[in-house]
């Protein structure tokens, strides 16, 4: 991916480091057993190791770092969030869902293995996420563990990611035309909830009291929307080779997106305005919030 | 179902009461939203309300009751375990997995709705389980919540239910012939882990120290195996109308089960011996363990 300028360096380094750490973390959590469960764990490893931008783990780590959390704990939590993200991608790619053959430039799990293994690998990663968070290695404070789990459970369920995916599917299948308000709501659930949870979980690890997290939530809300507008833009003007997945799907499906509803120029303008607004929410922080600022900019400038 | 004798009354009443409470609990947790997520939540309600024996919630409640836990907390935990059980049934019934059309005498979720909705409904129930456990309404003690989550996460993931399901699938598809030791291991993961977690979570709610839970674990291990042997027997000699699902599948698939490996008579004998042994593990308890004893007997005597 292309990231330029001082911000770019900071971010490129941050992403690279987190990518290596999250890979190592999955490698450690997923030893291949010496029985017929091997295929399941191999599929889980295939889906989790060496792919993905790791934006969510970097959000966890960057927020946690602002509040002096140990790197190790932050990476564990980032790995849990990424496990949820990857499980959702595996299930979304299934033939009965979006029927995708390519993800992060690799064949999707059900293509390499089979559909049943893909369903189970997603399920097992889903359980793994909560297993990681409930472990005392993540935090010795059970209250922190319990808060982390509540936040992730909420973001991934019917009032979060799964709910947003359902709204999306109904639009595809029943030809429901959402207006801008409905598309915004859908995306807040489908993408925004987990991005928001990433920041929130960094703050929970940092024991930031709930009443002083408002600016972080505002930041998350804005980057969540900007992220999805950027995704919709990429679907229209992006390069498939760089994206590592099929594009132009929205157009083929005649789907309402931020881009169809606002047009390319207006959508790009809106994404940039949201990023400026997100960064403004961090005004009370000094240079310790620079990675979050750089991440916000990256979200609209990325090419995959 | 047929349950006879004094035990039978105790158990029939216990099951009936828990069934009503778990139904009410799901009804409360799953309000249908006024947007296009409605189909998802309706599918979740269809799968969870009014069906199933509720053996797992009764295990939680009966164990918790022995240690003076509030009924409300025990039912919440029982509902969480049942959410995991139901999610696994929805996914197991999918065309790419066991391809079943009937469950608890009703059409399976993917038949009534569609495959994508079934995948998502399972996923959302999976998340709901952890959401319930992480909530302070379940226990005000975050350590208890965290222990409950760790126990359930472990039982449902690759080293529990999902792992067992994978072993089972490999046998079906690759024609691997398991011996008695491998079938035992498979079933301990696929069925035993969640039954064991139910008892364990009742004990966790009751703040039973981990070092004095050995007899409960021994009880769970024995009833878990007995439960699966009974299931294999039902597949051979059961009545489809009573079972509410397709039977004789093991034979058609040429699958190794406790019954094919031991024969009907030996299998029945073994199941009864395991139940006696399970009950013997409860010798240190008085009448407060009567429901657990009755449940153990029910497990081999049930006709569905």
TrEMBL record, chains A, B:
Domain of life: Bacteria
CDD domains: Trans_IPPS_HT (cd00685)
GO molecular function, one term: metal ion binding
Keywords: Isoprene biosynthesis, Magnesium, Metal-binding, Transferase
Gene Ontology annotations of biological process type: terpenoid biosynthetic process
Keyword ATP-binding: no
Required co-factors: Mg(2+)
Pfam families registered for this protein in UniProt: polyprenyl_synt (PF00348)
GO cellular component entries: cytoplasm
Similarity comment text for this entry: Belongs to the FPP/GGPP synthase family.
Protein name (Swiss-Prot/TrEMBL): Farnesyl-diphosphate synthase
Organism: Erythrobacter litoralis
């Amino acid at each position: 991916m292309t990231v330029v300028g001082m911000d770019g360096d900071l971010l490129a380094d941050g992403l690279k480091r987190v990518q290596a750490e999250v890979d190592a973390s999955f490698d450690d959590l997923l030893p291949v057993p010496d029985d017929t469960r091997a295929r399941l764990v191999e599929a889980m490893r295939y889906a989790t190791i060496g792919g993905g931008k790791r934006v969510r783990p970097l959000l966890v780590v960057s927020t946690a770092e602002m509040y002096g959390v140990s790197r190790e704990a932050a990476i564990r939590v980032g790995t849990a969030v990424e496990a949820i993200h990857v499980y959702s991608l595996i299930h979304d790619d299934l033939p009965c869902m979006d029927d995708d053959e390519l993800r992060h430039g690799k064949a999707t799990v059900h293509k390499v293995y089979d559909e049943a293994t893909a369903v189970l690998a997603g399920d097992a990663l889903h359980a793994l996420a909560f297993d990681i968070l409930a472990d005392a290695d993540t935090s010795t404070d059970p209250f922190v563990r319990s808060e982390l789990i509540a936040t992730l459970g909420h973001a991934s369920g019917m009032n979060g990611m799964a709910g947003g995916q359902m709204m999306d599917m109904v639009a595809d299948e029943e030809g429901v035309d959402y207006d801008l308000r409905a598309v915004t709501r859908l995306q807040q659930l489908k993408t925004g909830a987990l991005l928001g949870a990433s920041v929130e979980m960094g703050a929970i690890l940092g024991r930031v009291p709930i009443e002083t997290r408002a600016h972080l939530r505002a930041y998350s809300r804005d980057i969540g929307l900007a992220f999805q507008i950027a995704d919709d833009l990429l679907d229209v003007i992006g390069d498939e080779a760089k994206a590592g997945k099929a594009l132009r799907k929205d157009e083929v499906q005649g789907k309402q997106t931020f881009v169809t509803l606002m047009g390319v120029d207006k959508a790009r303008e809106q994404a940039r305005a949201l990023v400026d607004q997100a960064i403004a929410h961090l005004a009370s922080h000094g240079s310790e919030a620079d990675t979050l600022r750089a991440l916000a900019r990256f979200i609209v400038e990325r090419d995959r």
